[in-house]
Amino acid sequence: MIEPVQVLGQPAMRLRGSDGAQATVLLHGGQIVSWIPAGDIERLYLSPQAVAGPGQAVRGGIPVIFPQFERRGTLPRHGFARTMAWQWVEGHQRAGAVTGVLRLTDDETTRALWPHRFEAELSLSLSGLRLDVELAVDNTGDAPFSFTAALHTYLRCDDVLRARLSGLYGTRYVDSLTGQEQRQEIDPQGFVGEIDRIYFDAREPLSLSTAFGRMRIEQEGFDDVVVWNPGPQKAAALADLSDDGWLEMLCVEAACIGRPVKLAPGSEWVGRQAFEA
């Protein structure tokens, strides 16, 4: 079943499979804000203080970061895709899976910020205990362009201090808090407070363990992984996050940062992130 709903006062689409698996995606930002695997509980974190509207980023779910990661360029932080209205294209159910597709194309507003013609599509497919998310970008103009991108996934935790993330041992990373470059020497990784790391060439599957169970995380097309949690001090400074909200989430993001994607006219890039509870 696929039905229109309202979330945070904004139009959204809810997808529900015959097995009970369900997900909800906002048209604002093309942002998935809920995923409940079949027979399971909510696995994405959405802040109770989250707000949505023109120009506003929604705290939680899976924000789409495009065409710029963070402040690595001249655009607004994390680009513009996560704060714009996407178009619902289609949805269907077959072979036990439910799929939805949303689209964002360039217009006068985007070209004033980033002078390129493009078409971005976000596809989500859920079945059983699995969620697949795909971001595709087409260069529809007559000149090449480059971009960075990410799926800024907020995963729900019972207590991030007890969470463990496996699969990054030996991977080179930059600690964005210190600017230092290191290699991961601990596996699984535990969390004691603020963390902000970009792991480069991290293509192997990851595993996140919490009291909710073990989740497998895979990606394809995205070369890098970002692991982020604001910790108690930064959480207290964020208006759209409760003071203890940092304990309930961990961002494990599929990203292209170290090597920006370069697209010739008429070319397409595809990146995917998948979760299995």
UniProtKB/TrEMBL annotation:
The keyword Isomerase applies. The keyword Magnesium does not apply. It is an enzyme of class 5 (isomerase). The lineage of its organism: Bacteria, Pseudomonadati, Pseudomonadota, Betaproteobacteria, Burkholderiales. Keywords: Isomerase. Belongs to the glucose-6-phosphate 1-epimerase family. Its EC number is 5.1.3.15. This is Putative glucose-6-phosphate 1-epimerase. It catalyses: alpha-D-glucose 6-phosphate = beta-D-glucose 6-phosphate.
